[in-house]
Design goal:
Helix content is about 30%, strand content about 20%. It is α+β, with helices and mostly antiparallel strands. The chain is globular.
């Protein structure tokens, strides 16, 4: 991960870069578990509630709607965040290291978000930069942020980013070392022949690199390929909220106004988290977050409508209760988080428990359940 100062006419400068390998990284993976752990680690100041706004479910694929975004900004949220990736565009951009979204629309959204975040003095978080979250797309977004900051002569701020690509030889070493890359849904394990035929390997990050950069005091974070919900959950975990509520906050916000009705894409929604519940509110004047729209969004895009797998565990929505607490706001309670357990090789085993509230301390893997290896994506430096 890279840290630098950005703003004014000067570009960010990175000093003292170093590669963080498995031997030097363990402290990173211990920062995502419980409120007490978060506070003990000095990750953030616990607040009675925390509000995050999301203006676009796929940043740049079509421009965000400014009216609802500015309405949301007027509420003075604590974080502004968005996901820039999507499976809907298919595998070609990921494999070819290209964008599916027009560059002008991506810069449009980044500009509105950056200006609002700097005006409010709150962090801005982007995941899966440039549709695919490859290293070059991260670099592209970092440069866009620098250019926007220079164009508007913004005061200096701290800019951080991380990469998600994984070196083939790391994967090869895992295979040869007896740690297979297992296939999904009973598919065969990855072979070296398939590895040789692969042009690019891009892991999916969880909350860990986002939390690490927040701990470093970053004002703007650009992430490589990431789990959608992790982008938003990281901010709540950093501030000490429970995992269940944090990951549900991420789940409900990641597609922005898709969780509202009537349908209207690219409108801003706001999620507010407490130690007990999550509330989601539509910011567009014509939209409402209803019990039906919020519950429906929570259940779609999965074979099991109640389970969301992330790096380090599973969000269990089986016992969620949805309540209309205001005309535009729905409150959700009852979500639970089931941590993954490590097996002999260090890969996650999803526990089968009668009581999913049992939360035994575990070491989280660095990627989602869909990528079973630890990516060496870290490098860090500090600009002075």
């Amino acid at each position: 991960m890279i840290l630098g100062d950005a703003g004014g006419a000067a570009a960010a400068v990175e000093l003292g870069a170093r590669r963080v390998t498995h031997a030097t990284a363990p402290q990173v993976w211990r920062t995502n578990h419980y409120i007490s752990d978060a506070l003990a680690a000095g990750m953030g100041i616990f607040m009675a509630s925390l509000r995050t706004i999301c203006p676009n479910g796929h940043l740049g694929f079509a421009p965000l709607k400014p009216e609802s975004f500015h309405i949301a900004g007027a509420t003075r949220p604590d974080f502004i965040a968005a996901d820039s990736g999507s499976d809907d565009i298919g595998p070609v951009p990921l494999g070819n290291d290209t964008c599916a979204s027009p560059k002008a629309w991506q810069e449009h959204d980044l500009e509105l978000m950056l200006l609002a975040a700097r005006k409010l003095g709150v962090p801005m978080i982007i995941g899966s930069a440039g549709d695919a979250g490859t290293n070059s797309r991260v670099d592209m977004y970092v440069q866009m942020i620098r250019d926007i900051a220079a164009r508007h002569r913004l005061a200096p701020f701290r800019l951080g980013w991380f990469y998600s690509e994984v070196d083939k030889e790391l994967v090869r070493a895992k295979i040869r070392g007896g740690s297979p890359i297992t296939g999904l849904d009973a598919r065969d394990d990855l072979t070296e022949a398939e590895l040789d035929a692969t042009s690019r390997i891009v892991a999916m990050a969880g909350v860990h690199p986002f939390v690490k950069l927040l701990k470093e005091g970053c004002d703007v974070i650009i992430g490589g390929r990431s789990s959608d919900s992790a982008i938003f959950a990281a901010a709540a975990l950093f501030k000490g909220y429970p995992q269940g509520q944090s990951y549900y906050l991420g789940k409900v916000l990641e597609c922005a106004s898709i969780c509202a009705e009537p349908y209207g894409a690219k409108e801003t929604v706001m999620g507010e988290i407490t130690a007990d519940h999550v509330e989601v509110t539509a910011m567009a004047p014509f939209q409402r977050c209803t019990v039906a729209s919020v519950a429906g969004h929570a259940m779609y895009e999965r074979s099991n409508p109640f389970h969301e797998f992330v790096a380090g565990g599973m969000l269990d929505m089986t016992h969620c209760h949805y309540e209309q607490v205001a005309d535009k706001t729905t409150r959700v309670t009852g979500m639970e988080f089931v941590p993954a357990q490590d097996c002999a090789h260090g890969w996650p085993i999803w526990p089968r428990r009668s009581d999913p509230r049992t939360q035994a301390p575990t070491r989280s893997p660095s990627t989602s359940s869909f990528a079973k290896w630890r990516p060496t994506i870290w490098s860090s430096g500090r600009a002075r």
